[in-house]
Structures are given as C-alpha cells and as structure tokens.
Amino acid sequence: MVLSRRAFFTGQRNAVTGAIALPWWRHQAGCDGCGHCVTACETQIVQLRAGAFPQLDFQRGECTFCAACVDACPQPLFHPREQRPWQQRIRISHHCLSFQGVDCRSCQESCAQQAIVFRLTAHGIAQPETTPQHCTGCGACIAPCPVSATGLHHEPE
Ligand code: SF4
Ligand code: SF4
Ligand code: SF4
Question: Who lines ligand 1 at CB under 6 A?
C-alpha cells in the first residue's frame, strides 16, 4: 500500500488504505520524504516509497517504541513523547486457525505483554482472547500468524 500525498490520515491510520504511520504521528504536513526515519528504525519496519509518507510494515518486525524515528525527523510532525504512541490495539479475525479447529498459538507466543491468552472450549480446542488494555500495539504478533488473522485497529481508550 502506498500513501499518496493527498492521502487522508485519521490519527496514525490512513482512512483510505488502513496503513499505519509512525508512532506519535500527528500529521503529515511538512514531511518531505527525507527518509531519516527509515534509516533510524532499529527493527527496519519503516517503509517509504517514492511520493509517499512513511508507514510501518509489521511483516518485517515489531515496533519497540524506541522513538529513534521521532528523534531522527527534522520536522515537527509528532505528538509529545509523554503521550501514548498510538491507539492501535490487537484484534483477531475469524480467520484464526483455532476457530477452524486447528491448535495454533503463534500469536500468544510472540506477545511479551501477555495480551493474548488461549482458553479451552467445550470442543477441546483452545481459542484466543485478547486483553486490549495490555496491548501496546507493537505488532509483534502480526508476522507470526500463518493466516494473517492478527491485525491492529484504532481503539480510543
Ligand atoms: S519507534 Fe523505533 S522501532 Fe518503532 S518505528 Fe520508530 S524507530 Fe522503528
Ligand atoms: S524523517 Fe520526518 S520528514 Fe523525513 S521522511 Fe521521516 S517523517 Fe518524513
Ligand atoms: S500488538 Fe504486541 S502487545 Fe498487542 S497483542 Fe500483539 S504482540 Fe501483544
């Protein structure tokens, strides 16, 4: 997905494409596409295509909230660091293998915050439950899911 310069952001999420911008992202006005944030990211998840604004690719890794991208940016595009980096929280779709009777806990194993737990059902297959208040929106559970059932969604507190 490419964010055009005309693209419309709602918070950190592009309302048209669903792509997620950098943490603490406030607005795009002033971003000249210099790419300093791309170079600074320790997990190399910041992507910048020609004519677009930076966005995150959680298939490449997670956000550690190191704020190196914010520090590297020469423009005032971000909310103060004291604020939460974003309102992104995990959601697991019906594509999840455990809903099809397959035992898979890849997302749980990748979540350091223990925001995903599995509970046994009457059918003997454990199914996921999320705890949004524990989720930081780091994205670590996205790439490990074999059926792309994990995703981040804007959820105001
Ligand atoms: S906060 Fe750190 S890990 Fe997250 S996108 Fe910015 S540089 Fe990358
Ligand atoms: S460092 Fe700042 S101005 Fe440069 S591409 Fe990244 S967000 Fe845009
Ligand atoms: S986004 Fe991060 S904190 Fe939230 S459930 Fe996934 S791995 Fe856990």
Answer: 22-23, 40-43, 45-46, 56, 63-69
